[in-house]
Amino acid sequence: MDQTSVLASQLCSCFIILFHLTHSRADLPGTWELLVADAGIASMHTAVTRFNTVVLLDRTNIGPSRKLLPKGHCRFDKNDAVLKLDCYAHSVLLDLHTNQIRPLKILTDTWCSSGQFLPNGTLLQTGGDLDGFKKIRKIDPCDINGSCDWVELNDVELTEGRWYASNQILPDGSVIIVGGRGSNTVEFYPKRINGAVSFPFLLEAEDTQMDNLYPYVHLLPNGHLFVFANTKAVMYDYTKNIVLTVYPQLDGGPRNYPSAGSSVMLALQGDYSNAEIVICGGAQYGAFLERSTDTPAHGSCGRISATQTDPVWVTEDMPYGRIMGDMVMLPNGDVLIINGAMSGSQGFDMASNPCLNPVLYRPNEPLGLRFMVLNPGTVPRMYHSTANLLPDGRVLLAGSNPHVFYTFDAEFPTELRIEAFSPEYLGPDKANIRPEILEVPETVLFGATFNVIVSVELPVVEIVEVNLASAPFATHSFSQGQRLVKLAVTSAVPDGGVGRYRIGCTAPPNGMVAPPGYYMVFAVNQGVPSVARWVHVS
Ligand SMILES: *[C@@H]1O[C@H](CO)[C@@H](O)[C@H](O)[C@H]1NC(C)=O
Ligand SMILES: *[C@@H]1O[C@H](CO)[C@@H](O)[C@H](O)[C@H]1NC(C)=O
């Protein structure tokens, strides 16, 4: 852009921001709060633990962060590209009660790696760059007073180096690791005898700017995987390594790294036979190759019933074009689309025009009426930023670092602030219908029936839903392993005290509907979720 158009575009975005500040902020739903002014690191990968702490993870080979490791815990790595003796933390644990931060220590490079919680609550973390390429790491999470930390496994490594892969927990509690740059294969943790298995679909989906990285992987309730890369999608039987269904292509341009929008599987419910996948936004093809930061992102969403015969994509436009948006499954089944930019592509210094307005996607509204523009934030969250549902129904926003190193004097600086966005359902006007969970079992077995006891101030007039939300591994605008399962419930019946209700629930039937592990269980009354309790499902 020449000087005049730069000025014009700056004036224009200032005008837009001013417009929002003066007219829209108070009117649009949702509120923002700053949780941590300086987390010390910019989180590229974020996961919420069952101890109500959050693991935030960046990478090594990046030089100083703004958080020191404890005395005596510096890391020495003769191969580190920037700091051989590195006394800075590149991962931290955040306490959701106090917003305290404790440094964690990773040894190898987790840049563009992947992860997933195992059935016992351990966070598995795989791959990355350089010395992290084939690495497997774990953290057994803890509360903020615990001493948990990253453990790098030395007795086992990935069969292939994985950079930009996606992980998904499977019904038997193992994890599949799909793709990665130069790895058009899948492999498993725990490792299977055949190591990495060729997955030609990923190669077919590749183009001259890749566009097949961080594939969108969703475990369907029929036990197969929905895998989407670039514009293509298949139903994949990983047990036999065969493609069962080739879905139609999704129009509107590439959708995965370096052109990523985001994707969710909508809430599973009823008899769990149907699963709908939604994919929103992305970059124009060529924006990445040309390093064009001002090519408008595309704003279309495609939705498909992945489990039905001859399914087709139904598309719909978002109010904004968006690259690097995060799609977060809210406890009531709505989808929050947040973070990202309106132009450019993924990668260092590749985007501009941050999209500060979150958008709510309400899947049950009629086509054309599904989007609602929400109250804009003030912090651009561009490349390497994350969004995660919290157990209290808020959404945690962290990171943004579109630079190779920590850079603070840039148009889009390395972002160390952590914020929370509260959807409208947490507004004061909803307090008297917000349920509180009084009793719920700590563990439930597949198919078992159990009771949840809730209290609600105003009399309950509708079904109170009981919904399980997984804790995904959020990175690069896709939350690996994200799912929401609505349980079959009875009507809420009064249970003793005033405002006390009992809801009879049936646990998910099997690990295809809900892979074993810890879930946040939310009671949801007229769209308003309780604070979640953690329940182990197996
Ligand atoms: C969970 O399982 C993993 C993999 O088997 C194991 O390494 C880890 O120690 C286990 N964690 C706990 C807390 O038992
Ligand atoms: C951590 O320790 C502090 C100080 O002893 C205590 O007040 C707090 O409740 C503890 N937090 C948890 C989650 O146990």
UniProtKB/TrEMBL annotation:
Q: Which UniProt keywords apply?
A: Oxidoreductase, Secreted, Signal
Question: CDD domains from the xrefs?
Answer: E_set_GO_C (cd02851)
Q: Which Pfam families match?
A: Glyoxal_oxid_N, GO-like_E_set
Give residue ranges for domain Glyoxal oxidase N-terminal. 44-425
GO MF annotation: an example? oxidoreductase activity
Q: Does the record bear Signal in its keywords?
A: yes
* Full protein name: Aldehyde oxidase GLOX
**Provenance organism:** Arachis duranensis
**Native organism taxonomy:** Eukaryota, Viridiplantae, Streptophyta, Embryophyta, Tracheophyta
Which gene codes for it? LOC107475021
